[in-house]
């Protein structure tokens, strides 16, 4: 019965597939199941083939009886040999690690973020114990100790102070009128300077942990205004006219008239007042005449200035007339 190819079965998922070698070559799909079903499958007939084989032998093959007869007994003696016991005397080596220490150092010439490490190697303590055989026991000798020193690690960190100008404020120019300067002129009274905030960042190193603490300090420098003086001096033009003496009134009062005109400043484009005064004066035997002169700088309001100047002119003319009468 040996050599017969039985059908084998294989359950894949919920489906049981079967493959019989007698149908090999039926189609490519069937032949592909040889590896997935037959080679790994199970055949109940094939599994019980040994039983049927044994039954066949018992039923149909004659039994052959064998008898063993002892003719001679020989005795062989092997002499005893001394045993050997091995006792371990291999040296024992113990290594103890000596950890290195870490030190942190601040360098105020290097920027924040700079880091360099030197060293950092563990040391070792090596203990070696040797043994000597005494009788049937190994006895330890005095251990020898060799020590290699650790190389400490030195970490250098940058802690350089950092400064920078922030929050810049541009210079503002302020113009002030100055009556002592001629109209159209400018004079810088004060040079301005830019405002800013000086930010200082300092770093402090903890030598034990290597932690760096940052401190920020701001110092504010205010902006200084630029002051420019602009001329605002007013000009007064006085015109005098000498008239003949009136017969009925030998000492008539002179007539004065003040006229205000506006003049545009070529620099500031602002209109500035100019006062013009006309004064009439009587004088016997002389022809009419006129003159102009520049008054003092403007003070107070325009109307007050006009009255003040008019009073000054009249006083001057009155004194002059009095002198002529004398």
UniProtKB/TrEMBL annotation:
<keyword id="KW-0732">Signal</keyword>
<feature type="domain" description="G5">
    <location>
        <begin position="155"/>
        <end position="234"/>
    </location>
</feature>
<dbReference type="Pfam" id="PF07501">
    <property type="entry name" value="G5"/>
</dbReference>
<dbReference type="InterPro" id="IPR011098">
    <property type="entry name" value="G5_dom"/>
</dbReference>
<protein>
    <submittedName>
        <fullName>LPXTG cell wall anchor domain-containing protein</fullName>
    </submittedName>
</protein>
